[in-house]
Amino acid sequence: MQWLRSSPSLLRALDPSLLPLAGLLHLLLLLALSSARGSSRCKQTISRVARPHSVAITEFGAVGDGLTLNTKAFQNAIFYLNSFADKGGAQLFVPAGRWLTGSFILISHLTLHLDKDAIILGSMNSDEWPIIDPLPSYGRGRELPGGRHRSLVYGRNLTDVVITDSSNDVCIEDCYISTGDDLIAIKSGWDEYGISFSRPSTNIMIHRIVGETTSSSGIAIGSEMSGGVSEVHAENLRFFNSNRAITIKTSPGRGGYVRNIYISDMTLADVNVAIKFIGRYGEHPDEFYDPNALPIIERITIENVIGESIKFAGLLEGIEGDNFRNICLSNLSLSVTSDSPWNCSHVQGYSDSVSPEPCELLKDRIFPKHYSDCYHLTSHLRNLYRRAWLLSQ
Ligand SMILES: *[C@@H]1O[C@H](CO)[C@@H](O)[C@H](O)[C@H]1NC(C)=O
Ligand SMILES: *[C@@H]1O[C@H](CO)[C@@H](O)[C@H](O)[C@H]1NC(C)=O
Ligand SMILES: *[C@@H]1O[C@H](CO)[C@@H](O)[C@H](O)[C@H]1NC(C)=O
Questions:
Q1: 373 is catalytic
Q2: CA of 285 to the centre of ligand 2 (A)
Q3: Residue 140 Cα distances to 1, 42, 189, 348, angstroms
Q4: 306 CB under 6 A from ligand 2?
Q5: Is the CB of 123 under 6 A from ligand 2?
Q6: Ligand 3 centre and the CA of 339: distance in Å?
Q7: What is the largest CA-CA distance in the chain?
Q8: How far apart are the CA of 266 and the centre of ligand 2, in A?
Q9: Where does the UniProt annotation place the signal sequence (predicted)?
Q10: Which of 94, 213, 273, 337 has the smallest count of CB within 10 Å of its CB?
């Protein structure tokens, strides 16, 4: 698999009191499970759980020197902690260090607690990533027919830690992430398999993420999104030295939707493309996909963005006959190096206070007429809108 050859995954919780865990490369990440909605901090339901038993990964022979392979130590520690599952659960503490490991399996009632300077490094040796059955929503392996490599931090049927492909109520907070792939990837199934499996990824909160990826995106949605992706709220993001900040990719044949996406308070530096939409990503699991299954991409709001050394502000390419609609950009200030910072096709939307001047297709003002067409704009615009409405009465 291609991503195994990319640079090792690095994940670190910046504040050890905030996050019980962390997690992985390509298919998704880590999660402090929560039912957060609307607030800028997810409820810390899990990290507050007092675990009566705690062990350190070093008690299982792990060495955090960045060179020693610790897969067995993680597996043995978790196997041992499994015996506390019905006694209030247990905590596995990972102290400061660089902990090289292959894939390991989580259990329920486990807090994987990373110390402030604990870094989990994914092994570059593909033998450390066992092959397992494909996801039902994918039908086959993503890069090749057959199975898929197990993710770095893997789990099934877990009750208080969850790592899946189609995920609900996910919260990703306070992480520094640097990979050779997308830092956070949100997906939900692939073409006819994803359509029939029909499980969306929804209610995903992303807060205070810092990261870099020279080849990919800070946050990527798709291209496999056939089960639908909605209610993604990402705030306080900082991406630097990266290829793209935000990417939404899809293709005819995917079906599904990407809807109600809100991205706010993002700072960018040295980024090739700030916002990228790809409508014809291609790549299908087999020849049985339905080319008429067109995805619906709508109500995407991006606001309060500052960027410097950006090459392109937005390369936004929808699908002919299937415009990406109600794309709303508000308060973007990007210093760009390209002469044509925007390139838009088959998109429809609105903008306010965007510099450089957005493409023609997004030039209509949001405020006041199209305010309600845009997903979840902040109080600043909402107040303006209310005031105007009151004045008009
Ligand atoms: C997970 O749960 C499902 C449904 O309850 C069951 O069919 C499946 O075998 C379980 N998988 C594992 C690995 O326990
Ligand atoms: C515009 O965005 C910047 C960067 O996030 C923020 O500091 C500023 O307060 C925003 N302006 C308004 C009027 O919301
Ligand atoms: C702009 O969009 C057109 C049509 O989609 C495409 O052919 C061209 O390569 C794009 N330019 C850039 C710089 O991406």
A1: no
A2: 42
A3: 13, 34, 11, 34
A4: yes
A5: no
A6: 13
A7: 72
A8: 10
A9: 1-36
A10: 337
Instruction: Tell me which of 174, 181, 182, 265 is the catalytic residue.
Output: 181
Closest CA to 101 of 114, 90, 85, 111: 114
State pTM to two decimals.
0.71
Whether 352 lines ligand 2, by a CB cut-off of 6 Å, is no
